[in-house]
Each structure stands twice: as structure tokens, then as C-alpha cells.
Amino acid sequence: MLVTVPGRDVLDAFELAGSPVVLAGGEGRSVRVGDVVLKPADGDLQAAEWLARTMACIPEEGFRISRPLHTADGAWIYHGWTASRYVPGAEPDHGAAPRWLEIIAAGRAFHRVLAGLPRPDFLDRRSNWWETGSKVAWQERGPDLIAGFHTPYMELSALLVSPPGEQPQLIHGDLTGNVLFAPGLAPAVIENPPTIWCCSGWVA
């Protein structure tokens, strides 16, 4: 795998000292410099900037997050890189000690903080498999079914209940594998690439 590391100009922009160390996970594209993690801002830059602004100011109530950092002149993205504080923690070993209920609780706490945030405009511009699946799952649109899937889809749809909330809100699109645990600390909810992080949904 070809690993790209940020240049000295990127480190200087975020006022970082030291040498980048490639982190495990994140497809090997994130690096750590001291207590800061740098990663590429792929895709929709407006989405990446929205994510950084939002995560920089929301309160941590029952969870931790990796606080985004801006450059010395206030930019959230510099030469294609974003920066955020490193949060200690690791994915749980569910085979040894399942922690799904704790992940659900962390997700609910996180979503309570997101409740009331307006829907970002960039969500309406997206068109990919993840967005289509999200909209179908949350009943924002119908599926384009291929032959042989109509009957199973109708059977599954019959099991659906009404959404538990009247107003859709932003949610984390993929909590599985994105909640980290560390002894004595609240669970850390980390974000995915914005292509799947934001979607419409309801929180119970």
C-alpha cells in the first residue's frame, strides 16, 4: 500500500512538531504527530469543513470525540489534510467480551447532542450506493429492485414500524467499528469519511 504522509508545510500550518507516524486502521492513510492525527480530506470538501466545525463545538456528554483543529489562520483543511486530537482507545474484542450495548448507549448519547442540527445542503448533492441505501432504509425513497428481490423486500418492509421520532435528524452512519474504549474513559465516537458519516434518520 502506498502511504502518503503530509509535508512539512502541512505540519507547520497546523503548528505541529515531530515526524508523522502512520496509524493502523483508517486504510493506513492517517498519521499521528504527537497528540494530533492528520488524515486526507477526501471527497466533498464542504462536507469535511462542516464536519470539522460541528465536531469542534459539540459538548461531550456520555462520549468522547476527536476534536478537530484548524490552522493558524483558521482553515479546517490545508493542502488536502485535516487535523484532530488523538483519542486513546481501541475497538472492543466482541468475541471475548461483547460491548454492543455500550456502543448503542454511546451512539444514543452522541445523537442526542446532534438533535436539532439543521440538515447540511451537501447531503442533497450526494449520489452513491451508501446514500441510496440510507435513504431507502429511512424510507426517504423507494428502492430500484432487481428481478427476484421484490418478494423478499415486501416481506421485510412488512416488519417495519413507524419511525420513533417525528422529525428526521443527523445520525452517525456507521457506529460498528467506530466506537473506541479505554479504561476509565467514556467511549470515543470517531467519525468516518463524510461520505457515509451523515445521513438522515431518527433517534429513539
Automatic annotation (TrEMBL):
Pfam families: APH (PF01636). SUPFAM superfamilies: Protein kinase-like (PK-like) (SSF56112). Residues 29-190 form the Aminoglycoside phosphotransferase domain. InterPro entries: Aminoglycoside_PTrfase, Kinase-like_dom_sf. This is Phosphotransferase.
